[in-house]
Design goal:
Length: 369
């Protein structure tokens, strides 16, 4: 082994004497080594969710806020479109199921956030019913219990969840029918609610809104329990809006009115044909199925139009009730008189008559001999 020369040894000892005190002044983060997969142990805390939300206070200082795992209990997916629409979307809008007494079924509801910022959503259930006047398609009953209640039989695993912008959640919704349920229909809704934070809009300007905006969207649940079911739905009338029988131009707005006297909803469908004064078919409107709630009235507006309309027309509705292959048929007649066109034709006829009269009053016509 070679001996180190004395001057070299002194220089080495001098450098160590300077470096050791400086190491004590450095922050621990400089000396820390990156943790790899081999460095982790079973004692390390488990990372449940790594989503981080950046919040801005009124003083414009930012702070990192980790969304609690409990706020994201559902399966979260990223939307393919990052565009901001300022709304949220749920789907589907209606579930139409047949469940026997004591049976349960789980369906999937999708909630998408397109607000442009993270939002918290919550669930609530309400019974639904139809209208006895036909003015509304369906009514939400709030705390009131409906005649065909379903609100106590709709459930979700968690009442609240959080979504960032351009995220969607897949929500399992369970419907459980009691074992003593009678044959017929049950009707309810699951409402998804988003409440605006009154502090959000004042983050930069310092101003706060005066009120909190609550947005709700309902998904309808139509549940049919098989057995001896009372079906009784009829087409009550076919007319135009406000029973108008004279028009100057299209489009023509036709109105169908159904009344359901039964204990379960029906889904009628069919078509409307329009014929002219000579009985020739000049228009057909196919009608996709729609629903009519039990013990309620439902009106449906259909718009028919074509480029040129003049004369008397008859609209005939052929509507299948949606059960037992029963078809209701009804007709309604109306007139279309385009007065502007008729005034123009009258003016032309008047000018031609006046020209002929002028010619005969100024010239004498004699037969040639």
């Amino acid at each position: 082994m070679k001996l180190i020369a004395l001057p070299q040894l002194l220089r080495t000892l001098l450098l160590l004497a300077i470096a050791i005190p400086l190491v004590g002044l450095l922050p621990a983060s400089v000396l820390a080594q990156p943790v790899t997969a081999e460095d982790t142990t079973t004692d390390a805390p488990e990372v449940v969710d790594s989503e981080i939300v950046t919040l801005e206070s009124e003083a414009s200082s930012t702070a990192a806020y980790a969304v609690p795992p409990a706020a994201r209990p559902y399966k979260i997916e990223q939307l393919p479109d990052q565009e901001v629409f300022g709304d949220f979307v749920i789907g589907p809008g209606r579930f139409d199921l047949e469940l026997a007494p004591g049976e349960s079924r789980t369906v999937e509801l999708i909630v998408s956030n397109r607000m442009g910022e993270g939002k918290t959503f919550s669930f609530d259930t309400e019974d639904t019913t139809g209208s006895d006047t036909g003015e509304k398609t369906i009514k939400l009953l709030g705390e009131e219990r409906g005649p065909y209640t379903l609100k106590d039989y709709i459930s979700v695993p968690h009442d609240e969840f959080y979504l960032e912008h351009s995220e969607r959640a897949r929500i399992p919704v369970t419907i459980s029918i009691p074992a003593n349920a009678q044959p017929g229909g049950r009707y309810g809704s699951l409402l998804v609610t988003m409440v605006s934070n009154p502090n959000d809009s004042g983050a930069v300007s310092g101003a706060k809104p005066a009120s909190v905006i609550v947005s709700r969207i309902a998904t309808l649940f139509f549940i049919k329990t098989p057995g001896e079911i009372d079906y009784d739905m009829q087409l009550q009338s076919l007319s135009t809006v406000n029973d108008q029988t004279f028009f100057t131009a299209g489009p023509i707005k036709l109105l169908l009115e159904h009344e359901n006297f039964g204990s379960v909803h029906t889904t009628p469908y069919g078509r409307i044909t329009v014929t002219n004064l000579l009985g020739e078919e000049v228009g057909v409107q196919n009608l996709e199925p729609w629903f009519v709630m039990p013990e309620s009235i439902r009106t449906r507006e259909i718009e028919w139009n074509r480029e040129f309309l003049i004369g008397r027309y008859t609209a005939t509705a052929e509507i299948n009730r949606g059960y037992d292959d029963i078809v209701d048929e009804m007709s309604f007649s109306f007139w279309v008189i385009p007065w502007k066109l008729l005034v123009g034709v009258f003016v032309v006829i008047f000018l031609v008559f006046y020209l002929i009269r002028f010619i005969f009053s100024r010239f004498e016509f004699k037969r040639k001999t």
